[in-house]
Amino acid sequence: MASTIVACKPVPKCFNPVLWLTGDNPNGNQVTPANNSSLSQWTDCSGLGNHATQSTGGSQPIFKTNQQNGLSTINFNGSSQFMNFSNIGGYFSNSMTCFIVSNAATTALSSGIFMVNVASSSNRISIAYPWNDGNYYFDFGNISGGGRLSGADGQSTGSYFINSFLVTPGTGMKIYSGNTVIYSNGTTSTVSALSSGTLCNSSTNYWSGSIGEIILYNTALSSSQITAIYNYLHKKWNV
What we know:
Elements lengths: L18 E4 L14 E2 L2 E2 L9 E2 L8 E7 L2 E7 L5 E3 L10 E9 L9 E3 L7 E5 L6 E7 L6 E5 L8 E8 L3 E6 L2 E5 L12 E3 L1 E2 L2 E2 L1 E10 L5 H15 L2
Antiparallel strand pairs: 1-19, 2-5, 3-4, 5-6, 6-19, 7-16, 8-13, 8-19, 9-10, 9-16, 10-11, 11-12, 13-14, 14-15, 17-18
């Protein structure tokens, strides 16, 4: 596949993300925390200030160096560690694109990586994988009204993967593994008046594993834009 050339740098900011968390720069200033230190804030590098935070020491994830391709990641234990967003949901209405570099530690848990208003089945955003039934669950809006896309997650635990999730208004939802669409539908839903969200927590359930990078847009990126972000992540993380 030919590389997609993007003139601006860094590539994730070319398409105006609303959130950009990267494990190799968790403070947003290129100052590296100590290995195995607790992280109270994962700084948003988009410039919008949508930091992921956790004030409770026992719930703070752990920063670990040299985890994938020599880069650092943020590790969540699956039992108590998670982070919060104060108003990330307010950016969304009818479209989104999300890229996640992650390494799940287990398939035994029922939680997700990115969650907004998951107590509602009709007005929510949720990216959950691997669920304890071995599936992806990607929710945007009303899960009974066209806002859910799901399918088997064939990725193994203990390895890093790039996944992306797309909602295109009037067209449908897609789940990518690498740069390949593995699930799609022809339905969409919408969300409204959302606000706070969580990272690696769904109610009292927690996600277990390591996260290298999350890039989130409140627009539906084009195929060429998705390829550009994938190429950036693939080269950076070597996955």
